[in-house]
């Protein structure tokens, strides 16, 4: 949000947290006035926050009525994944070519730390009994944390290139990415497979193997769509 006031930031962050935590539900029309009263602010900063959330792809504003959460349909999933493939595929080739540079090694260090956090999270989930009968049954908290590390992993690839339009596009797709990732990771075993793919991808990048890193990234990003089509 450009030139945003403290109250706009407060309203934006509050609603975004409510959306991502599942406290706001799809197919429900929410009142702008009621949300303003709940947060204790006037309607003007709330209206601006809603406008920005709409631009960022989280909600659909219904004029004179309120807003609804944006739902995930097959076309949205397919198009957002295709955009990610185009952007992240480019980033992967750039990073692989620069893996031996100071900048490249710094990114690899960041990715390695994120992988360690993901692996530690899954291990702690197993030790606490969140996994049963050979299938992952992770708690909501574990899945949310895993998804956040997943998003950070992919954002790091985009941030490396420094393309402002790439960053804006990724931010605009963030909610659809969140919904797509949540849908995929709810399938037993997908968290572990995601972890394996991330680690192999990291190895390819570290070795400067852009071709295999690119191929694996395409498979990785397209997987949710492939799983969705298989279930139809």
Keywords for this structure?
232 residues, mainly alpha, Arc Repressor Mutant, subunit A, Four Helix Bundle (Hemerythrin (Met), subunit A), 2 domains, two-stranded antiparallel ribbon, 10 helices, globular
CATH architecture of the largest domain: Up-down Bundle
Strand order of the largest sheet: 1-2
Biggest pleated sheet: 2 strands, antiparallel
Strand content: 5-15%
- How many angstroms does the end-to-end distance come to? 39 Å
What's the number of extended β-strand segments?
A: 4
- Judged by helices, strands and strand pairing, the structural class is mainly alpha
On the 0 to 100 scale, the average pLDDT is 89
Q: How is this structure best described in words?
A:
By secondary structure, this protein is mostly helical. It folds into two domains: 6-69, Arc Repressor Mutant, subunit A, CATH 1.10.10.10; 74-231, Up-down Bundle (Four Helix Bundle (Hemerythrin (Met), subunit A)). The chain has helices spanning 6-20, 32-39, 43-55, 74-97, 102-127, 140-161, 164-172, 174-185, 190-206, 210-231, and strands spanning 59-62, 66-69, 131-132, 135-136. The strands form two sheets. Strands 1-2 form a two-stranded antiparallel ribbon. The chain is globular and about 55 Å long. The model is unreliable at 132-136 (pLDDT under 50).
